[in-house]
TrEMBL record, chains A, B, C:
UniProt entry tagged with the keyword Transit peptide: no
The keyword Mitochondrion belongs to this UniProt entry's keyword annotation: no
Protein name per the record: Nitrogen regulatory protein P-II
SMART domains xrefs: P-II
Coiled coil: none
Record family assignment: Belongs to the P(II) protein family.
Keyword annotations: Nucleotide-binding, Phosphoprotein, Transcription, Transcription regulation
Gene3D superfamilies xrefs: 3.30.70.120
Subunit structure: Homotrimer.
Length: 113, 113, 113
C-alpha cells in the first residue's frame, strides 16, 4: 500500500526538495513550519546567516504519501536534495499507512495518491 | 487499539468536519495550519475567492485518534463533510497507533481516547 | 527499530518536557503550534489566565523519534513532565517507524537517531 515519508529539513532547501520530488513524478506534498533541535542542542546552528545559540531552530516539515514501491527512491532523492553537509540538515522517517482516501473522488488506496 | 486519522482539507471546511465528528461522538481533535499541493501543481486552485497560481495552497491538517472500530465511519463521515467536488478537496490517511496516553489521568489504550 | 512519540501538550509545559527528555539523553525534538480540544469541548479551559469558551485551545505538538527500547521510559517521563492535573493536559501516542535517515550523514536506522 502507501507509505508516509516525513522529513524535517532546512527551510531554504524546500525548493530543491520539491524539485527532486517533482522529477520523480510525485503528485502531492504537505508542508508545515516547525522548530526543532538535533544532537547539537545548546551549540550554535546557522540559520539565515545568524547563529542560533537557542535550542530551537526553524525547520520545515514535509509529508509525502507515496506508493510503497516508490518509497525508497523518494527517500534517497529527498535526502540528497536536502543535504548541505552542515549540521542540522534534518531527519527523514518512513511509516506505514493503512488507508488513503482522495476526498473529492472518494478513491481509496494507491488510486487515491 | 487506536487508529490515527489524518486529513488535509480546505480550511473553510473545518467547521463542517468538526460537526460531523461531533455527531459521531468523537471526543477530541488536533488541528494545524499547513500548505500543500496535489495533482494540479502549477495549475490554479481557488482559495478565498482568489486563484492560486502558486504551488502551495493553504490547508488545514486534522488529526483524530479513534477506536479502531470507529475508524471506518469516522473516515467516511470526515470525507463526506470535507467534500466540495472541486479540485483540492484534500487527502485523508489512516495509520496504526501502538499506544495512547491521556496525560492528566495516565490512562492508556482505548480508555485514554 | 525506532518509535515516534507524538504529544499534544499545554504550551507552558514545553520547557519541562524538554528538560525531562534531555535528562534521558534524548538527542532531538520537533515542535509545532497546533490547536485542539479534548473531551470538554464546549466547556471552558484556562490558557494564560484566560478562560476559553471556544472549541480550540492552543497546544504544542511534540514529535520525538526514539529507539524502540527507550519508548516506554520516554513516554512515562514526558507524561509526568507535562502533567498539571487540570483538564486539557494533553494526549500522547506512539507509532512504529519503518526507517529513519539522518540527512547530513545518510546514516539509517537507530544510528540515524
Ligand atoms: N530524535 C528526533 N526526534 C524528532 N525530531 C528530530 C530528532 N532529531 C532531529 N529532529 C528534527 O530534525 C531537525 C534536524 O535535526 P539534525 O539534522 O540537527 O539532526 P542531527 O542528528 O543532530 O544531525 P546533524 O549532526 O547532522 O545535525 C531538528 O531540528 C528536529 O526538528
Ligand atoms: N501525495 C501527497 N502527500 C502528502 N500530501 C498530499 C498529497 N497529495 C495531496 N496532499 C495534500 O492534500 C492537499 C489536497 O490535495 P488534493 O485534494 O489537491 O489532492 P488531489 O489528488 O490533487 O485531488 P484533486 O484532483 O481532487 O485535487 C494538498 O494541498 C496537500 O496538502
Ligand atoms: N481524540 C483525539 N484526537 C486527536 N487529538 C486529541 C484527541 N483528544 C485530545 N486531543 C488533543 O490533545 C489536546 C489535549 O486534550 P485533553 O488533555 O483535553 O484530552 P482529554 O481526553 O479531554 O483529557 P482531560 O479530561 O484531562 O482534559 C487537545 O487540545 C487536542 O489537541
Ligand atoms: Mg543536529
Ligand atoms: Mg489537487
Ligand atoms: Mg480535555
Amino acid at each position: 500500500m502507501a507509505k508516509l515519508v516525513t522529513a524535517v529539513i532546512k527551510p531554504f532547501k524546500l525548493e530543491d526538495v520539491k524539485g527532486a520530488l517533482s522529477a520523480l513524478g510525485i503528485a502531492g506534498l504537505t508542508v508545515s513550519e516547525v522548530q526543532g533541535y538535533g544532537r547539537q542542542k545548546g551549540h550554535t546552528e546557522v540559520y539565515r546567516g545568524a547563529e542560533y545559540q537557542v535550542d530551537f531552530v526553524p525547520k520545515v516539515r514535509i509529508e509525502v504519501l507515496v506508493d510503497d514501491i516508490d518509497a525508497a527512491k523518494v527517500v534517497d532523492s529527498l535526502v540528497a536534495a536536502a543535504r548541505t553537509g552542515k549540521i542540522g540538515d534534518g531527519k527523514v522517517w518512513v511509516t506505514s499507512v493503512d488507508e488513503v482516501i482522495r476526498v473529492r473522488t472518494g478513491e481509496r488506496g494507491l488510486d487515491a495518491l
